[in-house]
Design a protein that fits this description.
Order of helices and strands: HHHHHHHHHEHEHE
Oligomer: single chain
Strand content: under 5%
Distance between the termini: 62 Å
Number of helices: 11
Largest sheet: 3 strands, parallel
Radius of gyration: 25 Å
Helix content: 40-55%
Length: 297
């Protein structure tokens, strides 16, 4: 039935499946939807033996996935909406469509290797992700295995790495489309899928971290991003951080053992910040961890 649909409708279905798969990533963190979307892409892939149609499915699935998973990419353009806001949709669409080419090639290659089966995707899809992470300096964001970080399955990232887990995810997606013909095969598929569902939905147990007697003071000047590098406002934010660092502790609380100025806390490079470092140290009267830019040769 799907094979009778026009190409654009098949691409739309694949794109929707990709957008659903992106719910596995933050801030949603529902890895079962990642698996569902990937299984839907494999099912669409199984309908076609023509490599170029398989490539269209992979590319459309990837485009829908990356447009959803990388929606945060528009945030920098919203800092100064009047000047840069118009670029945001183009950045998201072109970046997503470009990254999706890797998945389109993976689906095309899988069909070339195996015209009638989906097993070749188990190798081609992870290989495409490996290449995406390194070619042209690489862009590994929104890797499917990142959806497993907060699950029991994600604990194996420390043992096998992200690409092995991508291979495992694709294997599960392919298994879900496997047509079991014997009772033993059906039982095997059922066990694999159910155990996977458990592994990706149960969170690992986190032991309670013991508290120490040390006190940390985190300094935040509350500087809007658009104002952070304004020459007229730089002294305002700098003085505000000095004042917060030097403030007496609230009654009953201990003085800080460590003061943290996070992010790029001052506008001067490290080799030009000698006077500022002395002022910060004197104001804090405690060790200071400072975020600062450094210049290379």
């Amino acid at each position: 039935m799907i094979t009778r649909l026009p190409a654009w409708q098949v691409a739309l279905l694949a794109g929707i499946a990709g957008a659903i798969a992106a719910f596995g990533q933050e801030p949603y963190d529902v890895p079962l939807l990642m698996l569902f979307g990937m299984a839907a892409a494999v099912s669409l892939h199984n309908q076609y033996t023509i490599p170029r149609r398989a490539a269209l499915i992979g590319w459309a699935f990837g485009t829908g996935y990356f447009m959803h998973a990388l929606q945060w990419i528009v945030s920098p353009f919203m800092v100064d909406v009047a000047r840069h806001g118009w670029m945001a949709p183009f950045a998201l669409v072109f970046l997503s469509a470009g990254l999706a080419i890797f998945w389109g090639v993976a689906f095309w290659g899988a069909r070339k290797l195996s015209p009638n089966r989906a097993w070749s995707l188990i190798l081609c899809w992870p290989a495409a992700e490996l290449i995406r992470a390194y070619i042209f300096t690489g862009f590994p964001w929104a890797m499917p295995s990142q959806s497993l970080v907060n699950s029991m399955a994600g604990q194996s990232l420390s043992w096998f790495g992200p690409y092995a887990l991508i291979l495992w995810l694709v294997f599960i997606a392919v298994m879900s489309s496997f047509r079991a013909r014997t009772t033993l095969q059906r039982a095997l598929v059922f066990v694999v899928l159910m155990s996977t569902a458990v592994m990706v939905t149960i969170s690992p147990s986190n032991p309670v971290a013991p508290l120490t007697a040390h006190t940390i003071r985190l300094i935040q000047p509350n500087a809007p991003q658009r104002d952070k590098w304004d020459p007229e406002k730089i002294p305002v934010f700098y003085e505000r951080q000095l004042k917060l660092s030097a403030a007496s502790p609230v009654a009953g609380n201990a003085a800080p053992d460590l003061v943290i100025w996070s992010e790029t806390a001052i506008p001067w490079a490290l080799d030009l910040a000698g006077g500022a470092l002395e002022e910060i140290s004197a104001a804090a009267n405690a060790p200071v961890v400072l975020g600062v830019q450094r210049r290379g040769p």
